[in-house]
Specification:
Low-confidence stretches: none
Shape: elongated
Largest sheet: 5 strands, mixed
Mean pLDDT: 92
Strand content: 15-25%
Radius of gyration: 20 Å
Distance between the termini: 27 Å
Order of helices and strands: HEEHEEEEEEEHHHHHEEEE
Strand order of the largest sheet: 2-9-5-4-3
Helix content: 25-40%
Length: 277
């Protein structure tokens, strides 16, 4: 699984306190047997370019957290599977991949159990290229906007929602939840949705995402997806279908247990009754 928009937005908000802080040092643990996370540029250049820089903003691009500096550069953290951007001490010391020593503020620690996350320091043109490869943020799309990105496709709506070049930020959990809330089958072709269905889906997608952000995201069994201060999310207790195979649909009850299928190599959960084609 990859962290989704609510997890990234929760961490962005948690790191917002770093605005105005100055980078005193950039450190990376030495030695160890762990796979190193990708740094661009390498540590000596990263330290040279960041020392003395001040954080001017903490933003988000889809599922990425972005620190802006008064030098005009931006540190982009892409967490991939298990990466965390923390403003508190991490769960384990051995999985710390990078530490920004900040003054007068808590350190910003990049922690990654599997080492698949990436950290890139980009100038404005390079950041614009990253942003240009993403679709509009899912929180910013209404029905016509969502239809403009997807309605011409013959592909099923569920995997289409996961295409970051079309809609930025939506992942497996919230695609399942939004489709369930909108009463749309995940297998339904995009081209088969009418204007009312697009309006309903866009409305429910924004609502689900906003509710998940307010709840700190969904912290599942492995406990990885937590806020910047390590506080777990609670939205998993409100899932209507995701992870609920065989359990009653939150809307239909025991008459319609949730079904799990696989679409585009991703687990997909839906209610065969209220999401009937």
């Amino acid at each position: 699984r990859v962290p989704e928009l609510p997890a990234a937005e929760t961490r962005r908000r948690g790191a917002a306190r770093l605005r105005g802080a100055r980078v005193a040092d950039v450190r990376r643990p030495r030695g160890g047997r762990l796979r190193p996370s990708l740094l661009e540029p390498a540590l000596p250049a990263l330290r040279r370019r960041l020392r003395g820089a001040r954080v001017t903003d903490v933003g988000r691009l889809g599922k990425r957290v972005v620190l802006a500096f008064d030098t005009g550069e931006h540190l982009v953290f892409e967490p991939r599977m298990t990466g965390l951007a923390l403003v508190t001490e991490p769960p384990t010391a051995e999985h710390v991949r990078l530490r920004l020593v900040l003054e007068p503020a808590p350190d910003l620690v990049f922690w990654d159990r599997r080492g698949l996350g990436t950290l890139r320091l980009l100038d404005r043109p390079a950041l614009d290229r990253v942003a240009g490869a993403l679709g509009p943020d899912a929180l910013d799309l209404d029905g016509p906007g969502l239809a403009a990105r997807l309605a011409a496709r013959r592909a099923p709506i569920k995997p289409a929602l996961l295409d970051q070049a079309a809609v930025a930020g939506v992942g497996n959990i919230y695609a399942c939840e939004a489709l369930h809330a909108a009463g749309i089958a995940p297998t339904r072709p995009c081209a088969a949705l009418d204007a009312r269905a697009w309006d309903r889906l866009a409305r429910e997608l924004r609502r689900v995402l906003e509710d998940a952000i307010a709840a700190g995201g969904s912290t599942l069994g492995d406990g990885t997806y937590v806020a910047a201060d390590l506080v777990p999310g609670s939205y998993q207790s409100r899932h209507g279908v995701y992870g609920r195979e065989g359990l009653p649909c939150a809307r239909c009850g025991p008459a319609a247990p949730v079904v799990r299928t696989v679409m585009a190599q991703r687990a997909t959960f839906h209610c065969p009754r209220c999401q009937a084609r």
